[in-house]
Amino acid sequence: MAVRGATLAVVVVVVAAVVTPPAAVRGAISCSAVYNTLMPCLPYVQAGGTVPRACCGGIQSLLAAANNTPDRRTICGCLKNVANGASGGPYITRAAALPSKCNVSLPYKISTSVNCNAIN
After folding, report:
1. Which residue numbers delimit the Bifunctional inhibitor/plant lipid transfer protein/seed storage helical domain (predicted)?
2. How far apart are CA 62 and CA 74, in angstroms?
């Protein structure tokens, strides 16, 4: 039952963040696009195991699409929103490990404390 509650909490946070992205991090890439691109990562974040190939492809495509500061800040802010909603438990730890598991170097950490405004 706790897993269902945690899963529901993650889904609620994602939906809330899609509906209301923070004004300070708006760019050409939307939080909705970020979440849709990373949706294949959700099973790994929720349960661990093998990272789906589509998840790594999504991370790589977001990195490639973020070719300017506003887009990098937007992606960072979207991921920070999810991290804030999923803090505690194994979810944030698994999410933060995704870039290294996919051999992708992001210009920021997936964390509740990342300063997205410092990203260039």
Report:
1. 31-116
2. 11
**Spatial separation of the C-alpha atoms in residues 31 and 27, rounded to whole Å:** 9
The whole-model pTM stands at: 0.73
Closest residue by Cα to residue 21 from 32, 12, 11, 10: 32
How deeply is 80 buried, as exposed, middle or buried, from its count of CB atoms within 10 A (0-12, 13-18, 19+)? buried
- Give the Å distances, CA to CA, from 120 to 19, 69, 74, 83: 25, 5, 11, 21
Predicted confidence (pLDDT) per residue in 6-17, tens digit: 443 444 344 333
Higher pLDDT, 85 or 52: 52
Q: Which CATH number fits domain 31-118: 1.10.110.10, 1.25.40.10, 3.40.50.880, 3.20.20.70?
A: 1.10.110.10
Do 10 and 93 meet the contact criterion of CB atoms below 8 Å apart?
A: no
